[in-house]
Design brief:
globular; Immunoglobulin-like; three-stranded antiparallel beta sheet; single chain; about 90 residues; four-stranded antiparallel beta sheet
């Protein structure tokens, strides 16, 4: 699932129950995005190219936990600023 404003995009990635920040590898680059468990580095939970370039220096992620439910919340800043994306990746 994802949500956007004119200058930012937020993506929500469900993770396996009990996942901690130390257990995941999140890569946010200007053109690419990937999420994998460190125990399975070649088995990506999400991987692809952004719809448009992003500003990785102004992008961040955190984990949200609700009981056993764990969600990766990624907030990215659009490189080109005020525009609408047709898709996330």
């Amino acid at each position: 699932m994802w949500h956007q404003t004119l200058s930012e995009v937020s993506a929500y990635v469900p993770l396996p129950a009990g996942t901690s920040a130390k257990m995941i590898d999140v890569k946010i680059a200007i053109n690419n995005f990937s999420v994998a468990l460190k125990s399975k580095p070649n088995d990506y939970l999400v991987e692809g190219k952004w719809y448009k370039k992003i500003n990785p220096g102004e992008s961040f992620w955190n984990l949200e936990k609700d009981g056993d439910k764990v969600t990766l919340n990624v907030t990215i800043e659009k490189f080109e600023g005020q525009n609408w994306w047709k898709s996330l990746l």
